[in-house]
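Postdoc handover notes: sequence design on the structure in folder B. Input tokens:
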């Protein structure tokens, strides 16, 4: 173990060996590696130096910095971020003006091609770059300079990814992402509003362990974090499968945790691992907390996805020949999630069938009891008689009706007619 290294710094901050080994296993899982890689990860991190980082904030709200520094109960991952050797970050500098610029250039000179550049925020190009200046220079120039001398660049958050909110329609600053400034092979993008710190740590751990960045898609997003749809891992997915949707904020469906698709959830078109990694030290994420996914890890999401509360457009704007259902089926077919989701859906179905049968049987028994009481009590109990008749076959008929309604709902979904998804299903049973 090197005393000036990452592991020693973590130990000084109170991390136990046991927690560290658990962290290594969790990192292997996060990177979609077999658990047998965890000893290798542990060995690599134990012997790694504290990675030098130069962090540039461009045109943005600073939300990514906030997200990474607001841990109330820090995980090993957040501790690891704190123990990186942050050589320059303007939010944490005591120096200002020319002195701050000197801190940055000194760090670049101290670690030539040996530091990570992290860029947060969009790059505005309008008005000659005058919308965002660092030390009187357009931030694009500073980013290009810092990234040229870096081991690799991590563009964190949706604004650094493709311009984010600043690049949405109506934007006046000519904002775009970092990609235009950094050569291929040296850039990893970690979109999200804000990014998930666990994904940043996993990316760094991959680099420490394998001496290279993790495999990525054509937009530079690491596949371990952005290789699957939110929809496929969402805990509300069984309700989607069964056609159970919240239809208004605060309604019964919303209170019961049903699917938020009809309230604008963009999960079926959004690639991210939010459902499994979650935010706030793994406590929750927006869908779990009751709000639909807004699609913030996707290109041009402000315009392409519609507003946060509009239902998804029927065709995916950046994949114009693919429908939501097609991409969902294509994704899940490869990894068997459909089978899992249907298994859960079937479980829900059988459970509801049992509930319905139980209710019908109880109604029949109650009606029969009322009828028996009625014969003893005379004409006053007569209205119970039709219920008793209905009770005789209600269990079987009710279940059959229910199954027929569920089949109709599935057919409607497959036909893309999701307005009809819940039609025909007894609201009391939903
Ligand atoms: Fe979850 Fe949204 Fe998909 Fe519903 S539409 S299952 S809430 S990701």
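Designed sequence:
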């Amino acid at each position: 173990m090197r005393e000036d290294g990452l592991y020693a710094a973590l130990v000084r901050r109170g991390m136990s060996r046991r927690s560290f080994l658990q962290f290594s296993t969790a990192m292997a899982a996060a990177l979609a590696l077999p658990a047998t890689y965890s000893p290798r990860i542990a060995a690599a991190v134990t012997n790694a130096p504290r990675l030098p980082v130069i962090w540039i904030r461009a045109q943005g709200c600073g939300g990514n910095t906030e997200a990474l520094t607001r841990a109330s109960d820090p995980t090993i991952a957040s501790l690891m971020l704190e123990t990186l050797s942050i050589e320059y970050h303007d939010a944490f500098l005591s120096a200002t003006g020319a002195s701050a610029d000197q801190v940055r250039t000194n760090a670049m000179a101290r670690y030539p091609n040996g530091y990570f550049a992290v860029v947060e925020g969009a790059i505005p190009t309008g008005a000659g770059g005058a919308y965002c200046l660092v030390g009187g220079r357009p931030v694009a120039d500073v980013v290009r300079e810092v990234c040229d001398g870096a081991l690799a660049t991590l563009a964190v958050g949706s604004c650094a990814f493709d311009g984010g909110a600043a690049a949405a329609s109506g934007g006046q600053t000519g904002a775009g992402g970092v990609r235009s400034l950094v050569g291929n092979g040296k850039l990893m993008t970690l979109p999200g509003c804000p990014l998930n710190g666990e994904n940043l740590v996993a990316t760094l751990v991959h680099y420490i362990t394998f001496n290279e960045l993790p495999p990525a898609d054509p937009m530079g997003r690491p596949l371990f974090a952005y290789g699957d749809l939110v929809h496929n891992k969402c805990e509300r997915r069984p309700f989607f499968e069964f056609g159970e949707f919240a239809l208004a904020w605060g309604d019964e469906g919303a209170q019961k945790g049903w699917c938020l698709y009809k309230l604008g959830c963009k999960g079926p078109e959004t690639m991210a691992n939010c459902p499994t990694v979650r935010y706030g030290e793994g406590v929750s994420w927006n869908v779990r907390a009751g709000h639909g996914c807004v699609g913030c890890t996707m290109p041009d999401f402000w315009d392409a996805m519609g507003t946060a509360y509009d239902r998804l457009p029927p065709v995916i704007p950046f994949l114009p020949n693919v429908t939501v259902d097609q991409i969902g089926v294509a994704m899940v077919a490869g990894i068997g999630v459909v089978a899992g989701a249907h298994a859960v859906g079937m479980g829900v179905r059988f459970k509801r069938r049992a509930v319905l049968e139980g209710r019908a049987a109880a109604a029949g028994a109650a009606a029969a009891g009322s009828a028996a009481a009625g014969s003893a009590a005379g004409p006053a109990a007569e209205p119970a008689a039709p219920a008793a008749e209905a009770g005789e076959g209600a269990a079987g008929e009710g279940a059959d009706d229910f199954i027929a309604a569920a089949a109709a709902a599935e057919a409607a979904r497959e036909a893309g007619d999701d307005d009809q998804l819940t039609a025909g299903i007894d609201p009391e049973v939903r």
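Context for whoever picks this up: Residues 6-225 form a domain with the Rossmann fold fold (CATH 3.40.50.700). Don't rerun without checking with the PI first.
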